[in-house]
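pinging the channel bc i need a second pair of eyes. not urgent but kinda urgent?? the chain im working w is below, pasted from the shared doc
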Amino acid sequence: MTALHSFLFEWIGAGYTPTPWILFFARAIAPGGGAWICILLMGWAWWRQPSERNYVVAVSALCGVAAILSHAIAAKVNLPRPFMAGLSPAYIEHASRGALPSTHAVVMFTAALLFLVRRRLRAVGIALTVIAAVTGWARVYVGVHFPLDIAAGLLLAAVLAVTFLAFWRFGRRCIAKARAHGGTAGT
């Protein structure tokens, strides 16, 4: 996996000879610019789609859990970042800790995937997906992630999204049954 890591990073990352204007853009996005845009879009969706508010709040809570889980996995796996392996300087400030999976990718793709499956939230989901992908690219370019860290983040996000949807649908069925039985019990 190290050879694949290195090959993909050399293809996408800035390395030691970055293109200045691309580096400027990547440095603007990578530290958290994309994440803040996602948070604003999720807040906008919560405000504009009152019927989806419970769902947006639940997705936001899952994103918090996803961040904790991602950090725990990265600490356990403890794979180095490109700047730790000497493949590139870190063009943004970052701690020297495990990189796989990318927590930015896990959180942002979790929100994106879960917004994509809801008709009323799909347009925001498309925007979140694009922002997550651009943020992932930027974090590779500035030397703090390998491309496979981003891919692992997307994979974990997909697992979390599928699990969330199963529980969400189960919960909705239980609530509907309880309401149906509660509504007929008094008659």
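so The longest helix spans residues 147-185. and The chain has a mean pLDDT of 86. — does that match what u expected or am i reading it wrong
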